[in-house]
Amino acid sequence: MEYVVKRGDTLYKIARRFNTTVAEIVEANQLQNINVLEVGQVIIIPVEDHEDMEEIIEDREDIIEEDVTVLPTQNFDYEIVNGLLIILFTDEESYEQGENIRLNLVKVNISRSSIALNYNSGQRFEFIARKSGRRIWTWSQDRSFAQVTKRITLEPEEAVVYRAIWDQQNNNNQQIETGRYRIQGWNTAQQLEDNKLDIFLEIE
After folding, report:
1. What is the overall mean pLDDT for the chain?
2. CATH domain 1-48 topology
3. pLDDT value at position 70?
């Protein structure tokens, strides 16, 4: 799978996060200097298929509600932010041209305390698609949201799932071309909006 390097990442942290080793990442990417990673750099993570996420999130799948348990084998990204587990995934890594793409963003309170999140509007999440660095689709475009602030509290072990369908139309309502696309997804809470997750898709 492909992974976009984020601020604060090291090969050791990435290896632990995806249940692999530094040596395997170095070999897969032919890295010359294991101490140099650039934010935004795309690297290959040599992970095997996972039947579920327990190998990745340290056996915490028991706190995820039943409708969240259809979790990914390979095409996913995740981050833990102040006690919140955030997961972005799709059900496939490649799609036929014109096929609907199901995007999933999950947030789970894996801490022992309540977590409060502040939102500036009724929008709770965002998905965008890029090709060759250019944004070609934004989920929220042409959608309207209540312009009111709201504070939402997640209790320990509480999970919320956000789902969206991308019909492979760009922002001009035109069918996209085949190729490789980068999908970003994030929760729009003030505390989380800088924590963007990345996955990659192939349109065939």
Report:
1. 85
2. Membrane-bound Lytic Murein Transglycosylase D; Chain A (3.10.350)
3. 45
